[in-house]
Amino acid sequence: MEDNVMRKGIHPLSVHLGTAFSEYNGIQEYASNFDLKYSRVQLVEMVRGIKLYQGHVYKPERLLTNSIWQSGSVSILEPQIHNSYECKTGHKYPMLLIPSLINKSYILDLCRQRSLLRWLRSNGINAYLLDWGDIVKADKDITIDELINNKLCSAIKYLANKYSSNIDVLGYCMGGTLLVAANKFINEYISSIVFLASPWDFNAKPSVSSKSFARAVRIWSNIALSAIENKGVLPSSYVQALFASLSSEETVKKFIKFSTLDQGSQEAKFFVSVEDWLNDDVDIPKNIAKYCIEEWFIKNATFNRSWSVNGFSIDAADIDARVLIISSKKDKIVPYKSAMALKEQISSSRCNVIEAKAGHIGMIVGNRSIDHVWKPMLLWLRS
After folding, report:
1. Is 0.85 surpassed by the pTM of this model?
2. Under a CB-based contact definition with an 8 Å cutoff, are residues 192 and 323 in contact?
3. Along the chain (383 residues), what's the average pLDDT of each consecutive run of 10 residues?
4. Which H or E run includes 362?
5. What is the largest CA-CA distance in the chain?
6. What is the Cα–Cα distance from 66 to 76, expressed in whole angstroms?
7. Fold of 65-205+284-382
8. Cis, bond preceding 235 (omega within 30 deg of 0)
9. Which helix (H) or strand (E) holds 217?
10. Where in the chain is the domain with CATH 3.40.50.1820?
11. Rounded CA gap, 26 and 31, in Å?
């Protein structure tokens, strides 16, 4: 990246800075752990960290993939393996990784140091990545019923038919919630399901923070729904502003830390890779955004068993595949109790749990992700 090019993130910058100032007392308490006066020094360091990030010369290398199936903007990606990810064979079933719709899919294939997709491949799992693409550009009027049946279910069936085999599926965040519905229609193609930080009870209280993401969505719902009607999409800036309002302290912490790093180090480059992904957000199609706000966040239709897709009731109790739930009490986006609500509705004899010790994104790309999430999941897949 050229020196005169400034990154898009963090955005909306005014919201991040404004919420940081509004949380002054809380941040000052955090800053007391340092031998510094907070009032100016800590804020200056945060802003310096943001400027260092925005002007950083490192350009993350996008790892190479091939598309083996496509429907509109949605595709199945097969990784081109580099030497550091020597492909092994041995596991019986292929696997499809399904990300959320809010950010780009490459969080599951972020960089050479952190790619769940390629790590699984190097450990004998024939893994593929579902990429939602720019759905707004391809099909701005798509409904959640069409997304599940025409896109998600079709992708799973394609991969199963390609190998004449059932497949394992992993859903990250919203991807896991969508998988519960997909299972209703194509359960005969699915061997095992991994729900990774997937929300199910949208009224569940957070374990580690007084601020609830789901509650914030409900508070912002009138503004968001009005924006959807006016703009025909849920703009990514609204979603980013919502996250910023919940994570002011985290923003201060991470950019202060970044400002202290050797800017040429691998740690600094990894920070840039994650932050670029966080800010590489996408607009959400109007029908899907409106549906999720009204049915999931306001009515809690998932947990209350009142969610229906194409006229069919969606109930987690109908899942008869093997299930692994990975959740964390440190997750500030999907509370531990929200993810664990799936276990309450799935037959316990077929459901296992891994309690991770990392945050929502940390479970995918954090320092502990490989030892505390990826390796235990791999053992479970092979069992």
Report:
1. yes
2. yes
3. 56 52 48 46 86 92 92 95 66 90 94 91 94 93 96 98 96 97 96 97 82 87 92 90 78 90 94 92 94 96 96 94 95 94 86 93 92 95 89
4. helix 362-365
5. 64
6. 8
7. Rossmann fold (3.40.50)
8. no
9. helix 213-231
10. 65-205+284-382
11. 9
